[in-house]
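Batch manifest, entry 17 of 40.
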Amino acid sequence: MRIVLVDDEYLPLTRLKNLLEKSNVSGIEIVGEYTDSLELLKDIEILQPNVVFLDIVMPDMDGLALGEKIQEKIPDVEIVFTTGFDQYAIDAFNLHAIDYLLKPIQIARLEKTLERLEQIKNKVKEIKPRLTVIKLFGGLHVVLPNGQSQPIKWRTSKAKELFAYMLEHKNEMIFP
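Output type: structure tokens
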């Protein structure tokens, strides 16, 4: 689980990092720590985190606006808000936050959040293998859910090209 931590105060940021490192959940990798929300926005697409622990009350840009911008750049990211104020909870959950932790963060409460994140990660793993994928590079192949690649035989190359064109322009009107 790739995690980014964002808090404008150094001590809560360090505490959260220490709690995450001491947690019982394996596979935690803290890929970034930020006290400046604008710096995070520059780096977020490079870091590609699965989870962002995000403070709400910050200078420059509050955590709610930052969370929205992060979700625009990485739609599948999970956001956990960390704050000393409970009045932002409804706004946080309107952004589909996975959790809302009040400071000072307690290890038992953090463990519950991490368990919830693990459950989400495992559900995504269960869903992904069931997909049938059409591969267009290196020829036109169907990749079955079990991972087998199966080439499609076409009567003519024109039929193959037409299929690929229509697949590329699905949900669009195609005029002759």
